[in-house]
Design goal:
Elements: H1 2-68, H2 77-95, H3 100-131, H4 140-177
Helix pairs in contact: 1-2, 1-4, 2-3, 3-4
């Protein structure tokens, strides 16, 4: 009787082991397929993402260059509107490709860039008001101070923009370097589970 019971228990243990092994093997194979599919998906999106990220960064660098050469003072409101439109268009293109970390970084850069364009308009308007005044006007000194503060505002916003675009470039680069072979969090099995 003991030998028969041992045989039955041995057979049951073998069956349970086989079932558990099959479950583990199935999960590993499924995870492997999901990682392969994700990698292929990212590969197909890499070039369009690269192009969108590059166009966005180039637009921001063009804006920064415009400020670096002090030519922002002779802008026109139509040019400022065109700059805003270009920034938003490039951000929309980029936001369609993701991932979330890139969209969040690009949103921050977009907001700062739009603020830079706003500051350019404030500076342009302050310079225009100053040019219309005579030095004998009692408000001339105040207008001169306002114009100086407006210029400082442009440069301050541009420095923030430069830092933000550098940070964004690192985030975008990391997204482009993701080849999909890392297991996403939703595929990771927690300890103790089968």
């Amino acid at each position: 009787m003991d030998a028969g019971l041992a045989a039955v228990l041995g057979a049951a243990a073998g069956a349970v082991g086989g079932v558990v092994g099959s479950i583990v093997t199935g999960r590993v194979q499924r995870d492997g397929v999901l990682v392969a599919v994700r990698a292929e998906h990212l590969k197909e999106r890499r070039q369009p993402r690269h192009d969108a990220y590059r166009a966005f960064i180039q637009t921001i660098l063009n804006l920064k260059e415009r400020i670096d050469f002090d030519s922002y003072e002779n802008t026109h409101w139509r040019e400022e509107e065109a700059l805003k439109k270009e920034i938003n268009t490039r951000w929309i293109d980029l936001s369609l490709y993701g991932p979330d970390s890139v969209i969040a970084g690009a949103s921050r850069v977009r907001d700062i860039a739009l603020n830079v364009v706003h500051e350019m308009g404030v500076s342009r308007e302050a310079a225009y008001q100053l040019m219309r005044m005579d030095e004998e006007d009692g408000r001339f000194d105040d207008a001169q101070d306002t114009a100086g503060l407006a210029v400082d505002g442009v440069y301050s916003a541009a420095r923030v923009l430069a830092d933000a675009v550098d940070e964004f470039a690192l985030t975008a680069s990391a997204a482009l370097n993701d080849d999909g072979t890392k297991r996403p969090r939703f595929l990771r099995v927690s300890r103790g589970s089968v």
